[in-house]
Write a structure and sequence with these properties.
The chain is an alpha+beta fold. The protein has one domain (6-230). Helix content is 24%, strand content 25%. The protein contains five helices and ten strands, in the order H-E-E-H-E-E-E-E-E-H-H-E-H-E-E. The protein has helices spanning 6-24, 84-92, 176-191, 196-208, 234-237; strands at residues 64-69, 72-79, 95-102, 105-112, 119-120, 152-160, 166-174, 219-223, 240-244, 250-254. It has a four-stranded mixed sheet, with helices on both faces. The protein has a four-stranded antiparallel sheet with strand order 5-4-3-8.
Length: 257
């Protein structure tokens, strides 16, 4: 008999994201690793031993995974087969995102439409990513002059946790206020020493606050819904032209043959 638990879902989400990275990005050469190292105040690269991958051992419900790899924000969601309502919401509904910071960790929350509950990704730290895929976000001030530079893209993927197949892909634009705060948290994680005990305690506090995490968000943003394509009428397919009558309502007239 096959068993299915939250660890299986997490491993499948991680495996999917790793395969996507292997397909879409080239592997960084060892000589480039130093350029990705966290910089101290003297702008010198630290010892690479401090860059060892730190596995996250935090109890958290399965279903969502956030990653920041090679400068790209990714959110992987899982669903069970046949959840058509969930798929439609992720693909087209208005999206809302929240950022909650707790000590050295943060969590990203996502909600699609008003009928769907919040989905909270596992707590994240910049050092949870492999060393060759870490990039320290640039420090850019949130000013009118830099406003257009601070938009960020969040790549969303909905994966069937039973089959591993991708059900939905969507890209949304994070507003500069949200992206600026998120990049600031990531940069602070990169420049500060990693202390496993502190990270573990922060993860426990986040787990205890799960029911009320939305109330603790330091910043939130919304993305517009994706409009449904308008159906093409039979007259339009035969070269119809549209006019308006005296009341302003459209009138479709068929062009003469």
């Amino acid at each position: 008999m096959k068993t299915h638990d939250k660890k299986t879902t997490i491993y499948r989400l991680e495996g999917f994201l790793k395969r996507r990275d292997a397909e879409r990005t080239q592997r960084i050469r060892p000589a480039q690793v130093g350029s990705l190292a966290a910089l101290g105040e003297d702008q010198r690269s630290r010892n690479l031993s401090a860059w060892l991958h730190a596995p996250e051992c935090i109890a958290w419900p399965a279903g969502a995974e956030y990653l920041f790899r090679l400068g790209r924000h990714r959110l992987a969601l899982s669903t069970s087969g046949g959840a058509g309502r969930h798929e439609r919401a992720v693909a087209r509904a208005e999206a809302e995102f929240a950022l909650v910071v707790e000590g050295p960790l943060f969590v990203i929350g996502a909600r699609f439409g008003t009928a769907m509950p919040w989905a909270w990704a596992r707590p994240y730290h910049w050092r949870f990513t492999a060393p060759t895929q870490r990039i320290v976000p640039a420090s850019i001030a949130l000013t009118p002059r830099n406003y257009a530079r601070l938009w960020a893209t969040l790549w969303i993927t909905l994966v069937d946790d039973w089959t591993g197949r991708v059900r939905v892909r969507r890209a949304v634009a994070l507003r500069p206020e949200f992206a600026h705060t998120l990049h600031g948290v990531l940069r602070a994680q990169a420049l500060r020493p990693y202390q496993p005990s502190t990270v573990h305690r922060a993860g426990e506090r986040l787990h205890e606050a799960l029911p009320d995490l939305a109330l603790r968000a330091c910043v939130q943003t919304r993305c517009a819904a994706v409009s449904e394509p308008e159906p093409v009428s039979r007259w339009a397919t035969q070269g119809a032209r549209t006019e308006q009558d005296d009341t302003g309502f459209p009138i479709s007239r068929r062009q003469p043959q």
